[in-house]
Amino acid sequence: MTPLIHITENVFKLRKTDRVIGFYLYDKFNESIARIDAVLVDSQSFHSFYLVINLGGFLQVSGKIVVLPVEVCEVEDLGKVKTEWRKESMLEAPAPIDITNLTTLEEELIRDYYALPLQRPFPSKNRRE
């Protein structure tokens, strides 16, 4: 597996469908969960695999960093991403020690928590969707 890099801005190398930094994540009941702070992308193809959100932070007190696989999310409208997962369930998800250096074990634990195959899906050949 190629390493992932942490991107905090919607840079031109990202596919249009992956430019979701700054969007808000909503659950299936249309309740706001959090703002998307970053994405974790393949270091070669810039294909996005994970969204990074912060749950529970308030007044400069950092909350829990949650890594959410893109397979459990869908871009709805400009500025809006939806997931079937509830905020309460995401609080129980495994959290990485260092978000800028996600280990293989941490990635497998996260994927297992969301009932996904342990290996990342193979990125599509078409980079610019």
How would you describe this protein?
The protein has helices at residues 87-90, 104-113; strands at residues 4-7, 24-26, 32-42, 48-55, 64-69, 73-77, 80-83. It has 129 residues and is mainly beta. The chain has a single domain (4-113), classed as Photosynthetic Reaction Center, Chain H, domain 2 (Alpha-Beta Complex). Strands 1, 2, 3, 4, 5, 6 and 7 form a 7-stranded mixed beta sheet that branches. It is globular and about 35 Å long. The chain starts with a strand and ends in a 16-residue tail after the last helix. The relative contact order is 0.20. The model has no long low-confidence stretch (mean pLDDT 88).
In short:
With 129 residues, the protein is mainly β. The protein has 2 helices and 7 strands. Strands 1, 2, 3, 4, 5, 6 and 7 form a 7-stranded mixed sheet that branches.
Secondary-structure element string: EEEEEEEHH
Query: How many beta-strand segments?
Result: 7
- The first-to-last residue Cα distance is 22 Å
In the CATH scheme, the class would be Alpha Beta
Percent in helix: 10-25%
CATH architecture: Alpha-Beta Complex
Strand content: 25-35%
Q: Any idea how many domains?
A: 1
| Mean pLDDT over the full residue set | 88
Overall 3D geometry? globular
> Radius of gyration over alpha carbons?
14 Å
- Count of helical regions: 2
Q: What ranges have pLDDT less than 50 throughout 5 or more consecutive residues?
A: none
Return the structural class.
Answer: mainly beta
Largest sheet: 7 strands, mixed
Q: CATH superfamily name?
A: Photosynthetic Reaction Center, subunit H, domain 2
CATH topology: Photosynthetic Reaction Center, Chain H, domain 2
